[in-house]
Every structure is written in C-alpha cells, then in structure tokens.
Design brief:
Elements lengths: L1 H18 L4 H38 L2 H49 L3 H7 L7 H41 L1 E6 L2 E6 L1 H21 L2 H24 L1 H7 L2 H53 L5 H18 L1 H34 L4 E5 L5 E9 L5 E10 L4 E5 L6 H9 L5 E7 L5 E4 L8 E2 H6 L9 H10 L12 E2 L1 H4 L2 H15 L3 E5 L7 H14 L4 E5 L11 E6 L7 E4 L4
Parallel strand pairs: 3-7, 6-12, 6-13, 8-11, 11-12
Antiparallel strand pairs: 1-2, 4-5, 4-7, 9-10, 13-14
Helix pairs in contact: 1-11, 2-3, 2-5, 2-10, 3-5, 4-11, 5-10, 5-11, 6-9, 6-10, 6-11, 7-9, 7-11, 9-10, 14-16
Length: about 575
C-alpha cells in the first residue's frame, strides 16, 4: 500500500506543475475535450450493445427488411465512432507535445541553472545519463500518463455504464445446493467480478518483476548509446592508440547488459503473455457459457444472448484494465522512478552548489580579487588545499604552478563558483567581465563564426573583427570558413583549439582573465606569441594563469607555487627566487 501511495505521489509531483502553469488553460481545455470524446466513445458502445439485441433478433426471425435497417444503423454508429476516435487521438497527441515541450523546458532550466549539470557530473554516478532522461523519459512519461489515465477513466465510465445493463439482462440464476434452493440476482455481474479479480491477482504475481527490469533496460540502453557517442567524439585518440579492440570490448560489455536484461524481460513477458492472452481468449467464450442455461431454457432470445455477451465483455474488460495494461504500467513505473530520482538528484546538487555557508563566494565593492583563508576539499571530505591567500588587481599578472593533481585547476573552479566544497572567502571583483579559458576549450557544433563568438551570439561581432582575431592568433587560414558548419572539436587540432580560445578572448576583451593551462597544446614559441598578444591587446586586464612551463614567468609579475604536503593538504606559497 505504501509503495502504491508513494508511486501516486511521485506521479502527482511530476504531473501537477504543468496543469497549474502558464499553459494550463490550453492544456485543461484540450484535456476536457479529450475526456468528453472518451465519454462519447463509451456512449456509442452502449448504443452498439443495444444494437446487438435488435440485429441478432432480426437474424433469428429471418427479417430481411429489419436486417438492412439495422445495418444502416450500424453504419451511422460506426462512422460516429471512427470520427470521434480519430480526433480524440489527434487532440491527445496535440496535448502530449504541448505537455512534453513544457516539461522539457522545465527540466532543462533546472538542469542548467546554477550549474547543476556540473554538480551532477562532479558527484559521479548518482544519476546516469541525464540526457536520456530529458530526451526519452519525459516523452515516455507524458505519453504513458495520458494513455493510462485516459484508459483508466474510460474503463471506469464503461463499468458504470454497462454494469446496470448486464445486471438487468443477466437476470437471476437459481440452482440447488445441498438440498437448498439458491438464487443469485445479476449473476453475470458477479461472474465478471470474480473472473477479473482472479486475473488481476495472477497478473500482479507474474508481472511484478517487470518494473525493475524496465528501469534497468532504460539505463543499459542509455549507457550503450553514451559509449558510442563518446567513441565518436574521440575517434582520433582511439585511432592513434589503435584502441579499437578495447573499445569493442567496452561496446560488447555494455550491449551484453542490454541483451541479458532484454532476455529477462522476454522471459517475464512470455509468462505474462501466457496469462493475459489465455485470459483474454477465455473471456470470449466465457459469457456464452454463463448465459447458455437461460438461452436454452428459452428465457432469452439470440439477440439477448449476444447483448449479454457484449455487455459482459465490456464489464469484464473494464474490470480487467489492470490485467491488460500491466506491462505498460510496469514501464510507466520505471519511467516515473527515473524522472523522480533525477529530480531529487538535481535538488541535491543545487543544495550542494548553494548551501555551503563555509565557503563565502561573493562580489565585493573594490576592483580586486581576494582569496582569504581558502581551504578546498574533495567531495569525500579530504582537504586538498589549505589556507590559500592572495590578491589580484587590475593589470596584474599572476602565475600559479605546481605538480599535477594538487588542486591548481580546482582553485580556478572555486573562483568560477563551480567547486562548492571548502571553507574561506573568495571576494570577487565588483565590476568587470570575467573570462575563463580551460585547457580543453568547448567548441559547439555550428558555424565557425558561432564557435569563435561563443557564448555571445553568432552575429555579435563583425566579420572583420573575427577575421583579424583569428589571424592574430595564427588561424588566418580559417578566415574563409566562417560560414562552414562542422564538428570543429574534431576538425581542429588541440593547439588550434587553444588558439581559437585566445581569439575569443581578443573579441570579448575581458577585464579578469583566468587561464587553466590554456596554452599547454601549443609549442613554446606559439605560447609566447599568444601571451605577448595578450599583454599588448589587454594591458589593463588582470590575469591569473595556471601552467607548468617556466617560460611563462616572463609574462607574469608574480609566481605562486602550490606545493603538496607530505602527509596533508597542499599550500600556496611564493615561488623561490621571486
């Protein structure tokens, strides 16, 4: 009971926001029309049920004129049913895409806000494949929710509509039990109820494992797809290392999970199909068996028998909604679980990003970057940097060096607001634009103009300015390709990508610049040219560089060294000889 209650609560938590959003009135209007059409379909089924009586009686009476008259009535009923069914499906799909669009916007906004996406990635495998959850699970959730809830509503209305009909048609069944006369009024209703309860119980027992299996299947499919995408993004590295065999082993291992879990689903669904198919086939003949005594006794005519069979099928089908929909219910449960856990993970990441009061990151009033008593921790709580202190003013250039893995890049992440684990104070400058250049620049897929301008709009800079910036950074040969749309992260070498990042810098003219080994892929001479260009073009910009090459000292006024402790965290000290 608690599991069902929690499941319904999770569904409401995911579904409710849309129906109270800015799009609520179009959504509610579409839903009202769709529900009205569903009720209309049930009403037409009631009319068809009554038609069964009249039609089969004309057959029994060999009434040719009545036969053609009933065919005409059926054509009108069938036409009405077709029109309503087609437009109900059309409007339901319209509501589905509106709801999916709104829900996708909400999830994307929450995923991107406050760098939650970065927090999820940093915290590891807490939530697998967020892209799949946004792209596939939301679509599945909206479609399954509409299909199942509308199906359940139709079943309830059908049950209410045909229950009275079946009760009146079936009459009373009288028989003798241990010498006592027993009369069961509306016995066909009780027969349908018992038949459905038994089927529902057996379906639940057989199909319950499908919930977890469907959840795992979605995860394994997403893992396999992600490994293929990651391979595509790193084809050159794989080719240079001749790592095809290792990559194939990874692909095969992940696809083996897909296949193994799929086989488990197949075996479980085979058992469920034995039950549901047999249950459905038995339901075809069962009402005739139950109504046969009254028919052969002459209490009802052939039309009455067929109407009873039709009404029994409608009641039994409504009562057996759970049986027929169980496989989709299991998939729905898995989808809801994945979206709920994703939502919770985003909330947790948001709290981590914004809930650490011990790390004070705020803009000050002065034009100075001040790091005061800063200690940075790993997510597991271990301290990697302790009591770092320094200031950076406009026009100053500071170099930070040290062994790999001691926290140099983490220090820049903390200044950028990406690293929430730590204590101390980071006073950000009160004015001026900040720009961070990582070791591996991000190059979006699009035209070269859009790539160079990122994150500004593609038309944010004149072509002449872009061309000049590319030429100044040694990329003049790309000037004629501004309108070419390519996967530039694979087209350009690592060194060219870093030069392109410097071209962005020249265009955007930041006041505060942070370079995290931003020239590590460029040869030493090219690195000096880029730093010389930086000094000439942005003489008033404050620069904080992380790098290993000692040749960078010539372009910086101060040199700080991050030294790792023998048995403890690292410390930031003034480099020897400075």
């Amino acid at each position: 009971m608690n599991k069902t209650k929690n499941f319904l609560r999770d569904i409401w938590r995911l579904a409710r926001p849309y129906w109270f959003s800015e799009d609520r009135w179009p959504g509610r209007g579409l839903l009202a029309v769709i529900v009205s059409m569903s009720l209309g379909l049930v009403f037409i089924n009631v009319l068809i049920n009554k038609w069964n009586n009249a039609f089969y009686n004309t057959l029994q009476d060999r009434n040719l004129a009545g036969f053609y008259h009933q065919l005409g009535i059926f054509c009108l009923l069938a036409l009405a049913y077709i029109v309503v069914a087609v437009y109900q499906l059309y409007l339901r799909q319209m509501l589905q895409i509106r709801w999916r669009r709104w829900l996708t916007d909400q999830f994307l906004s929450r995923w991107l806000a406050d760098r939650v996406y970065y927090g999820l990635q940093m915290r590891g495998g807490e939530t697998d494949n967020p892209d799949q959850r946004i792209a596939d699970d939301i679509n599945a959730f909206v479609g399954q929710t509409l299909t199942l809830t509308l199906g359940f509503l139709e079943s309830v209305v059908t049950l209410a509509s045909f229950l009275g009909i079946l009760w009146g048609l079936s009459g009373a069944l009288s028989f003798s039990l241990a010498g006592l006369g027993v009369t069961v009024p509306g016995y066909m209703v009780w027969t349908a109820l018992v038949y459905s309860i038994v089927g529902t119980y057996l379906t639940l027992r057989v199909g319950h494992p499908l919930v977890r299996l469907n959840f795992d299947q979605q995860r394994y499919e997403a893992d396999f797809r992600f490994s293929l995408v990651r391979f595509r993004e790193n084809v050159e590295g794989v080719a240079l290392f001749r790592g095809e065999k290792d990559e194939n082993e990874v692909f095969q291992a992940r696809f083996a999970n897909v296949v193994h879990n799929w086989w488990a689903i197949m075996r479980r669904r085979k058992r469920l199909s034995w039950l549901t198919t047999g249950y459905g086939q038995a339901a075809v003949i069962f009402p005739f068996l139950a109504a046969a005594p009254r028919y052969f006794s002459g209490a009802i005519q052939l039309g009455g028998l067929m109407q009873i069979a039709s009404a029994f099928g409608q009641v039994q089908g409504a009562l057996s909604w759970f049986v027929d929909a169980y496989a989709e219910l299991a998939a729905w449960k898995a989808t809801v679980d994945r979206l709920t856990s994703f939502t919770q993970a985003m909330e947790d990441a948001h709290q981590v990003q914004n809930g650490n009061a011990a790390l004070d990151l705020a803009a000050g009033r002065e034009e100075v970057l001040e790091v005061d008593g800063l200690s940075l921790d790993l997510p597991d709580g271990a301290t990697m940097l302790e009591d770092a202190r320094f200031q950076l003013r406009p026009g100053e250039r500071v170099l930070i060096s040290g062994p790999s893995g001691v926290g140099k890049s983490t220090l820049l992440r903390a200044i950028a607001g990406l690293w929430p684990y730590g204590r101390g104070r980071i006073g950000l400058p009160g004015a001026g634009r900040m720009l961070f250049l990582p070791q591996k620049p991000y190059l979006p897929i699009g035209t070269l103009r859009a790539v160079v301008s990122y994150p500004m709009p593609a038309d944010g800079f004149a072509d002449a300015d872009i061309t000049e910036a590319l030429a100044a950074c040694g990329l003049g040969h790309l000037s004629s390709l501004l309108d070419d749309a390519r996967y530039w992260a694979q087209t350009l070498s690592p060194g060219e990508q870093q030069r392109l990042a410097f071209a962005r810098m020249l265009l955007q003219k930041p006041d505060w610049l942070f370079l995290d080994e931003a020239t590590s892929a460029v040869d030493e001479r090219g690195e000096q040219e880029l730093y010389r260009l930086l000094t000439q073009r942005l003489p008033k910009a404050a620069v904080l560089s992380v790098g290993h090459r000692m040749s960078l000292e010539a372009f910086h006024e101060r040199h700080l060294e991050l030294r790792s402790g023998k048995d403890g965290p690292g410390r930031l000290v003034l480099a020897p000889g400075v």
